[in-house]
Structures are given as C-alpha cells and as structure tokens.
Amino acid sequence: MKSIVVSLTCLSVAVIGGCSFTPQEQAEGDFRYTEAALHDGLEAAPGLTLPESRSQYRVPDVQANTPVGKSVNIKSPILVWPTAAGSRVEETQDDVKVSFDELEGMANLAEFVWGSALAELSARQIPVTSEQPQQRLETGWVVDEREVGEDDLLLRTERRFELVMETPDHGRTTSLSVDMIEKQESGPGKGFSSGLVADRNAEARFLNSIINEVAVRQNTNQGIVATDDSIDVTAGFNEEGYPALTLDTSFQNTWGLMGAVLPELGFAIDDLNQSTGRYYTTYAKSQSGLSKLAFWRDSAEGKLDIPEGDYEVQVTGNRELTTITFYFDGEALSAAQLNRLYGPVAAEIRRQNQG
C-alpha cells in the first residue's frame, strides 16, 4: 500500500507541475552564476595605501555573445579525425580544418585531395552549386533528420556548406576547411534542439567523410604513381634492435604491399592497425596463395620453413625507409629464422610491386 501511495503522490506532482523535459544537451542547475556582478574595488583603511594593482588575475571582459546558463550545450563535440596518411588536425574552437602532406609518388597533392572531395560528394549525392577548382565550392542542401525532445519529435535540418582549400605555392601541403553557410529547420521538433554544437558537429561529420575518402583512395593507390618499380630488400635490424627486413621505400608503400604479400605467403590477416603498423595474422601451410614463384618454397611441402601459428607483422618507417619485423607468439624471430624467410618474402614483395 505504501508504494501505491508514493506512486500516486509522484503522479499528482507531475500533473500539477506540468510536463518538464530537459534536452540531453542542455545544462541543469540553478545557474546563479549568471546573476553574479562585479563588486567595487578595495578601499584602503585611513592612513594606509593600497599596493600597486596588477592585471595578472583580472578576468577579461567577454566580447562575444556566447551562451550561458541553460543555453550552454554540454554534449561532447564531434572531433575531426585525421584518418588519411599524412593528414593532421589543428583544431580550434571556431575552425573545422584538416591539413594534408604530400606522400611519395603523389603527382599533385591538391588535385588528389580535391578529387577525393568531389568523389565523396558525388557518392553521397550532394550537389555542388558553385566551384572554383582546388580553391572553393558550395554545396546544395544536406539533409539531417533526427528525433528530439521527450516525445521523440522529428526534426528535419537542411544545411549548406562551404569547402575551402588553401595550398601554398610549393604544393607539398594543402588544407581543407568546412563552414556552414546556411540552415533551415522544419518538422514538429523545430526549436527543440540547440544549434551551436549541432551545427559544428555537422561540419565535422562533413569533413570527416572527405578525409575518409582520401584515405580510401590512398590505400587503393588512386592518383598515386610509383616513382621507381624496383625495391631493394635487405636483412637488417629495426630501431629496437630486432632482426628485420629493410626496404628502401616509404611506409605507405610497404604497408600496402604487405597487405597483398602476406596472404600470398600463407598468412591469413585476422586484424590490422595502420596507425601502429601492425598486421595480426595466422600462418598455415594450407593457406599459401597461387604464386608461381615456387623456387622459394620448401622443397618437401612447397611451403615456408616456419611453424604454423599466430604471427604479428610490424611495419615501421618513414617516407624513405621501412622495416618489417615478424613476431611469433609475442617474440621477434631470430636472425636465423628471418634469414629463412628472406628469400620468399623479398621475392613476393618484388613481384607484388611490379604487378
């Protein structure tokens, strides 16, 4: 009976007080700080003087019309993610921007990035209303529909974006920035959601989709030409002193090659992480590919002279030199073990590079 009385009491309070709903992005509290006022300065006692004032701890006046109290959006903003090779973010409160550096074999960085942007817009069926190639473009309306409020009201938001590219004369780097230039809302949920963070999130999502397209085109070598078909593969050591294969080519090139080389040698790629340069694989003699380079295989079984099991392949390097280190059960292969792998791995790398 007690629980029923409590429930009825809560219900009556809700009816009397009316429907109260706080959006997820809205801050809660009494917001007394919004009523705070500056106090008069200190006054010296009779016969005393105040020390010379300094502005070290003075709170500056806020010039911008920024939200306070319940108008503050407390949801975490969407970040710009530099997922493409050679990309980096210098994110500020006002700018949504990414920079790209030229990669080895890239004939024209600005053309490559701009082409990736246009390809992404075309794939998403976003119209381009005006364009200055490799400088600036404006999009048509980009539609975003979501449910807002306690009653899950449909809010339809349409935005237009400006994409700006800045490329210095040397052409070895370029940047893309996104800015929303126009917005209109409709639907039952109109006015239920604060637009400041939502608009910036939309800009970040728009730019992230372009960065991802750049990354995809890099991995498939679209728009990237090889500067030299020959790769010198030698046995040496990585920066940590472990036996490793050394290649006189860029990390990006080696990473892409190993994605094709490993399955051909019999390594099934279970997982990978390009940011750390790691391929997580399982070697089985039955998994070897159909390479015609039979001379590098074990004469008895036609397979590699290594035990079956889990291997981790680490690729490290820069634009000019990379190393490949093989780990078996968490331990780096010895120099003798690596020497037995040298012939087949080097041959397959050269074959994939030329093919």
TrEMBL record:
This is Outer membrane protein assembly factor BamC. It comes from the Bacteria. It comes from Pseudidiomarina salinarum. InterPro entries: BamC_C (IPR042268), NlpB/DapX (IPR010653). It holds the Pfam family Lipoprotein_18.
